[in-house]
Structure formats: structure tokens, C-alpha cells
Design goal:
Strand content: under 5%
Low-confidence stretches: none
Structural class: mainly alpha
Helix content: 40-55%
Shape: elongated
Radius of gyration: 19 Å
Number of helices: 5
Number of strands: 2
Strand order of the largest sheet: 1-2
């Protein structure tokens, strides 16, 4: 909320392959060893340093600090960061609401507006660390159905809303 994000859920799918995770674990262990951690966090770090990132206590690192650390660690190894901001950027699951053609003004849809605002907030927050940000990926993913998960009209509206948000164009 402090960063201007609302209705936001951020998911990290992977820390890479087994070798990457081992390297990252080593980097994280070194980083954590240099911090003044409380007893519970020290014990957690000794068992599995990756679990420290799951700390929900208010004195733990914020999600933004955690992701900055992760991104900086990868960038320090020469990796270029690509980010995909999917439907998970909005807490409300869209389910099947975008399968049919939009009616009315799809740009006025609250979910679309929330998504565009959250893409903008993520871009602002990590602009110095992420090289490319992609919005919705695989809109034709059938999700076990017989038609697109996102109708092309909705996808166009989402992309336009993000474009307007990033460019500061309100209409």
C-alpha cells in the first residue's frame, strides 16, 4: 500500500534450475550472514535460507526488498532481467470474465484499470533492475476450454490501458 499498489498479488514461479538454486542459496546465505538477524530468523536461515524470504513477520524484509535483492543478485552475475506481469498482478482472479467479447467500454472495467495501475507500479518500482516487462502472455491459452482464455477485444483493451498508464494518458 505504501508503494501505491492495491489489489496486488505477486507470485514468483521459479528460482531457476538446480544449479542456479544452489548458487543463489550460497549468495543468500552469505547475505544473511552479514545481517543482524533475530533468533528465529537465524535458525530458519540455518535450516533453509530460502525460507527466510517467506517470513511474514513485520520485521522481516518487505517483498520489494526481497525482490530487489533477488534481482540484484542475478544482475551481479550478468543476467538481464525479463519480467512477465500476468493476471496474478491483481488479487481478484479474473476466472472466465474475459473469454467473451467485451461489452460497453472495456477500458472502464475495474479489473483492467487495476491491472494497468499495478503494471505501472511494478515498472516504477523495478525500472532500474528489469530490462523488459511483458504484460499478459499466452492469451490464447485455452485453460482446458474450447476457446481463448482472453478474447482479442479484451486483450487489446488491457494493452491500451497499460500503454495509457505508462504514458500518463488518461484518455
Amino acid at each position: 500500500k505504501r508503494l501505491g499498489l492495491t489489489g496486488f498479488r505477486l507470485l514468483l514461479n521459479s528460482l531457476g534450475d538446480q544449479q542456479t538454486r544452489l548458487e543463489y542459496r550460497e549468495i543468500l546465505t552469505t547475505f544473511l550472514a552479514g545481517l543482524d538477524l533475530d533468533e528465529a530468523t537465524t535458525q530458519r536461515a540455518a535450516l533453509n535460507p530460502l525460507r527466510v524470504l517467506d517470513d511474514k513477520r513485520p520485521q522481516g524484509m518487505t517483498w520489494a526488498e526481497t525482490y530487489r535483492f533477488i534481482l540484484d543478485s542475478f544482475r551481479s552475475r550478468g543476467l538481464r532481467i525479463y519480467a512477465l506481469v500476468g493476471h496474478e498482478a491483481v488479487a481478484e482472479d479474473p476466472a472466465d470474465r474475459f473469454r467473451d467479447a467485451p461489452g460497453g467500454d472495456p477500458l472502464a472495467d475495474p479489473w483492467v484499470q487495476q491491472y494497468a495501475g499495478n503494471v505501472l507500479a511494478i515498472a516504477r518500482l523495478f525500472r532500474d533492475q528489469i530490462e523488459v516487462i511483458e504484460t499478459f502472455n499466452e492469451p490464447d491459452d485455452w485453460h482446458g476450454r474450447d476457446r481463448n482464455w482472453i478474447h482479442p477485444g479484451w486483450l487489446a483493451a488491457m494493452l491500451e490501458a497499460v500503454y495509457r498508464a505508462v504514458r500518463g494518458d488518461t484518455g
